[in-house]
Amino acid sequence: KVIAERYNRLQIEAQHEIQTIVRAPILNPRRDNPVQQEALRRGVRVRGLYEREATEQPEIKPFLKAWVAAGEEARVYGGKLPHKLAIFDHKVVLLPLAMPGDQMRALLIRHRELAVSLSIMFETFWEEAQPIQSIERKSSVNHRRRPTSREHRAEYPNSNGRSGSSRELGRGNRQPKPTTEQQGYSQ
User: Fold this and answer.
1) What is the helix (H) or strand (E) element at residue 86, kind and residue range?
2) Paired sense of beta strands 17-22 and 92-98, if any
3) pTM for the complete prediction?
4) Are 129 and 55 in contact (CB under 8 A)?
5) Pairing of strands 45-51, 17-22
6) How far is CA 121 from CA 15, 82, 87, 113, 124, in A?
7) Among candidate residues 94, 91, 89, 84, the one with its CA nearest the CA of residue 111
């Protein structure tokens, strides 16, 4: 319940995009997801990437068509996805972790570089997945077109795989000089 509440809060706070990787069990098994619908009305792009196996689960199957009709962009991936994941505005990551038994924990990470890296992973699986089509999309929802790679790099310049500056990493302005062992030499 706490994870679902945090997920809802992050949907409320989202301003541009929500990317989710969905595996059963689902955190919010409701036909109507009013928080997501409100995000869509505000113009937030919502994309769900579902494992094929998950789309057959009773927590997901009866509701998927309604979510797509409400404006969620959804695709089905034929293989196994690495884990559940939600990325909000390329800044915040909610990573649910399955624990022994029916326990669930989640990591909430506010780290732009990690969020962008996980978004790149999401995009890779997204491109390989098959779209779920719905002719019942509501025309009142404000859909945003997907940014091109160039637009994405312009908006998120650190998404090219480089880490942040040394100051951001808490090491001051100087990088430590590599030792002889780190350079691959042995004495």
Assistant:
1) strand 85-88
2) unpaired
3) 0.69
4) no
5) parallel
6) 21, 10, 11, 13, 5
7) 91
The residue type at 114: L
Task: Return the SS3 of 107.
Answer: strand
pLDDT digits (tens, 9 = 90+) for 159-176: 444 433 323 333 344 444
Residue 184 clears pLDDT 80, i.e. is over it: no
> Would you say 88 and 18 are in contact if contact means Cβ atoms under 8 Å apart?
yes
Instruction: Give tens-digit pLDDT for 33-77.
Output: 789 999 999 999 999 999 988 888 877 787 888 888 889 999 999
Q: Note whether 21 and 52 are within 8 A (CB).
A: no
Q: Which two tokens stand for residue 186?
A: 């042995």
Radius of gyration, CA atoms only, the chain: 19
